[in-house]
Model the fold of this input.
Amino acid sequence: MTALYETLSSAINLVGLLATACFLYDNFKSLFSILKAVLEPYFRPELPHSLLDRFGKWAVITGGSAGIGKGYAKELAKRGLNVVIISHMKEELIATANEIENLYQTKVKWILADFSKGKEAYQHIKQELLGIPIGILVNNVGCAYCPDELCTQSEDWLWNIINLNVGAVTLMSRIVIPQMKKQGKGAIVNIASSAHWIPTPLVAVYGATKRYVRSLSLAMERELFKYNINVQCVEPWFVRTELIQFSDILSRNKYFGTPVDTFTRSAVFILGKTLETTGYWTHAIMIYTVNPQLITATARKVISLNRVESSKTPKATIETTEPKPKTGIIARIPTTRSAHIPPNTKETTIDGAGKDNGNSYTNNINNRRLDLHHRPKQGQFNKLASPSPTSLISANSFYVAANQADKWLPLDEDDPNINRLQHRYRAAVLESYFRPQLPHTLPEKFGKWAENLYKTEVKWIVADFSKGKEVYEHIKQELLGIPIGILVNNVGCASYPDELCNRSEDWLWNIIYLNVGAVTLMSRIVIPQMKKQGKGAIVNIASSAHWIPTPSLAVYAATKRYVRSLSLAMERELFKYNITVQCVEPWFVRTELTRFSETLSRGTFFGTPVEAFTRSAVFTLGKTKETTGYWAHGIMVKLQFVFYIIIYKLKKGKFQSFFLKLAPEWLRIRISHAFINHIRKEWLNNQFKEKEK
Done:
């Protein structure tokens, strides 16, 4: 009895201790965060050398002709570094270069380049940077916009902000990292924003791009630390630059705007001392003391006032003709094979919107077996959508590795025992979760078969989202007259794990256009019509990868963080129009995206069958704005959310997992890095085996 009493007493004491710890954490975390942000740079051991000695003689600053970029250029020049400033404003570049040379007697080189043009700008930049030993890169270039709803922003402007805020930080890092690795030193400073902390309506895309920057930065830091390359993410509050000139509240109020020179002097002082910083002490106080809900409410009020301030003329809306009851699917039919990108695809089947959008969508999404795919030797179209009014799915490109193409066998569509044919496909994914391949000759046959099986009307659209903005005019023309009730933004791509610097530039643009561009532009296309109808639903497929910045999957995880931020901000913008926005954040699902890894595609612990997942996910549509899609994924992600960590051990090829609570983000990033490295080794081993055959 005494032993039982002591055990019970110990358990009660443990619960009390845990409750006390949680209470102290909740009440003092803001104070701790402020003290850490403000005092950490001063308590770090002194650097053994100056910035010039530690990182190198040259610094490159994008957007360096004005604002924060100009401030960085002046501060670094003051410390003896030569600088390269890049901008699209020639007059500003020349004036800034002359000013710095006269003030600090350092070398200044300027490069005229317009990052909003996308991939075409970078060949010129690379040529201009040849022979310059770059020690520091400041990824500062970016743009913001007058606060307004996503659907009122022009498509050109949306592409500009994606190219500037997402493309530039990714591609410029890709350009300089190989040289820094060769030098054995370097620093990359990525300018994000405090806007990343909260998905903010009316600046939905801007806030999402800054979430991307932070996630990318923390993952890059873990990838590059072994090469003695420092990566720092700067997340300022409001700084008095041209980006906030549209608002008197932001640009002139002393509580909001910090002068550029004051901010950059502090930010450069912190360079090399912390991995993440607000750049200035008052910004840390603003971010860590204000309750998130209060920030959200205040931001909405301020942004709404600013929108009224700066709006001079009403923006045009997209007009649509009287809709016809049809269904639609969008996908790409590749004409060439890709050996660089492993097979990857996501498809979803959707049935209609009707009176109850959720129910009619559920009826057909359960039939994901219709997403039969794999076009032998060439690739695959993947698409399917719905009846009346209409559900629209964007399905991604499907790549077949060249060294696997010979494994595909032709399929006789008249075979009465079509299900047993799947055993003949050695390269197919798990037979339990995918039906056999459809005939690869005519997409029309696919639509006809779907109509016969499910009594729905099907429209297919061939479109390659990896081409960027050029595909959307065709999509809009094809969608005219279709009353879209549901849009599922599922298109996307991933690849085997590897460091950012090992990715090709074309692949980086593909993943940006697919994972970031498509969800943004497709939403922009359908929202005006949904507003006119007074109802609709948008489902954005993200990933649980967004919870942790993931080394070796740095860009992929960052794009998924973008999707979540965009979705939550859109939900707040559109709820008053009776438009549902849902973000689906699955754990591992057994699709072509995970096929390169046996751990992910065959392990019973990780992979959820596609049909089981989509049946559950569609059941949640209209009931929650954010979901993992499946109950097991919810458990995994929630444990992750409460400082979930995977620690893996490989014993005879088996994967074991353990859970630790209260682990900080930096430790979770390191653990995820170790796990992803294991996945990468699996892919490399599989490639080696394929070559031996």
About this structure: Residues 86 and 374 are 44 Å apart (CA to CA). The first strand starts at residue 58 and ends at 62. The two ends are 68 Å apart (CA to CA).
